[in-house]
Fold:
Amino acid sequence: MEMFTLPDGCVTESAADAAEQWADAFYQVKDALHRLRPVPEAILRNQPIKDLDETLAECDEALELGYR
Structure:
């Protein structure tokens, strides 16, 4: 019996569940990076950054995937 580790650190026997959860985690990280990429340039241009706290929280959560 093969076991698969999920992004939250739990383990499952279902390859399909593991694949689905890891795919969701991948897109969560991709979305967080997409929101974070323009922030440094906006700071350099002294432009306001909308929802910076929310963006950083999303990035922090994405970074924790697999480390819980």
In short: The beta strands are 4-5, 11-12.
